Amino acid sequence: MNNITLAGKKIGPQSPPFIVAEMSGNHNQSLDRALAIIEEAARAGVDAVKLQTYTADTMTLDVDDLDFLIVDSNSLWKGKSLYQLYKEAYTPWEWHKPIFDRCKDLGLICFSTPFDETAVDFLESLDVPAYKIASFENADISLIKKVAITGKPLIISTGMASIAELDETVRTVRELGNDNIILLKTTSTYPASPGNTNILTIPHMKKLFDCQIGLSDHTLGIGVAIASVALGATIIEKHFTLSREDGGVDSAFSIEPKEMKALVIESKRAWQALGKVSYGVTEKERDSMKYRRSLYITQNMKAGEVLTKENVRSIRPGYGLEPKFYEVILGKKVKKDVEKGTPLSWELIY
User: Fold this and answer.
1) Are 62 and 280 in contact (CB under 8 A)?
2) Per residue in 62-77, pLDDT tens?
3) Which has the closest alpha carbon to 239: 157, 165, 162?
4) Alpha-carbon distance 241 to 27, whole Å?
5) Is 328 exposed, middle or buried (0-12, 13-18, 19+ CB in 10 A)?
6) Tell me: the pLDDT tens digits for 286-320?
7) Taking the model in full, what pTM does it have?
8) Where do the domains of the chain lie, and which CATH numbers do they carry?
């Protein structure tokens, strides 16, 4: 499994989770707001900001047919046509350069999700360092090929994809000489429930495809994302907004600046806690060994007196014999006078 370098930043098990703030449509059609989102993302400590590169016309058709209407009663966008949704959510292409520039100024990596081949050409003109493939496009082999031949890292959401579909996508990328692949466990519902997220798929997917696995998380809060780190996620992507109260097409399942900062901190802690398989005393625990229980004389004793339950006990600290010898030493005698509080040792008894 390859470690991947994205714009000079290493991504892999030996590095803290790579945190991506997904802007999507949370700019609410304001460039000033888009730039403010980037500034808050930088303050939160994320590694990268991700955009989406499309127009309503590259995504769908402006027609009134029922096929193009969102009728799902559970959808956040019920009643809109696909064209209306994408018209509201898209990031104008002329905004991309100022957004990329602001990210660079703030030390953030900026990349994007292209939704058709024209978007790839456009992003190449901006020298984008990586590409994200959305769940709804992860079986679009023509688009996959177009991106793969750039040689740049592909971060691919896996929502709705079968193993066979993912296998075809991964093989397509590798057959074109590009092994810079990261798959993201994704549940393509908005918002997603923790109970329907199935992050146990992460280590299975890692073994199956021999590549890095991350999480594109649409649940509320940061709990699922933190848990994914323990299962091997090397990238976490979360939709990000200034405030959910401001509304917008993605606001309901986006996190705010304080939550994003907490995600950055806690995901790193989770990664640090993984460590290695370890038993016994660690170097940091060595000083605590003295507070384990051990066998101590609990009454003043004269030479030749017998050790009993009344004059020897297992107590803290740990300078005496180990408690496992308690039954062995009962009935034995002390060789000399000993005072209460003396740690018991083999030299004291016969």
Assistant:
1) no
2) 998 999 999 988 889 9
3) 157
4) 8
5) exposed
6) 999 999 999 999 999 999 999 999 999 999 999 99
7) 0.90
8) 14-54+90-274 (3.20.20.70), 283-348 (3.90.1210.10)
